């Protein structure tokens, strides 16, 4: 199955805020509250400084309205390269562990289960008697 490139994104909220003269994360709390979105100061800080993994559509629309920008300005999609071990072989099958470039077949390195047997107790008792 042919898959397209994996996608990631860049979050440009801080840059857009700076371009509009908003240099403190608290500058965003008031305009958000005016649009019915009430976030704590730590939530606003994380929204500005970190890249969000989940974002409500109401919050996204409020940010676009406050910053007077488009979604393309705020969120930039970027393609990321796939790791070599994730690529398929020419015949469409997944490569084996030895084909990942390490030169080692890891299947032969699987540990075997240890079997514990009772120690020779009578021989130890005889030595204690001496």
Features:
two-stranded antiparallel sheet, 6 helices, elongated, 434 Repressor (Amino-terminal Domain), 130 residues, 35% helix, alpha+beta
Textual characterization of the structure:
The protein has helices at 13-19, 29-34, 41-49, 57-67, 71-74, 121-129; strands spanning 6-11, 75-80. The protein contains six helices and two strands, in the order E-H-H-H-H-H-E-H. The protein is an alpha+beta fold. Helices cover 35% and strands 9% of the residues. The chain has a domain at 6-80: 434 Repressor (Amino-terminal Domain) (Orthogonal Bundle), CATH 1.10.260. The radius of gyration is 30 Å and the shape is elongated. Strands 1-2 form a two-stranded antiparallel sheet.
The radius of gyration over CA amounts to: 30 Å
- If you consult CATH, what is the topology of one domain? 434 Repressor (Amino-terminal Domain)
The CATH C-level name of one domain is Mainly Alpha
What is the H/E string?
EHHHHHEH
Total number of strands:
2
What helical percentage do the residues reach? 25-40%
List the helices and strands and how they pair.
Blueprint: E1 6-11, H1 13-19, H2 29-34, H3 41-49, H4 57-67, H5 71-74, E2 75-80, H6 121-129
Antiparallel strand pairs: 1-2
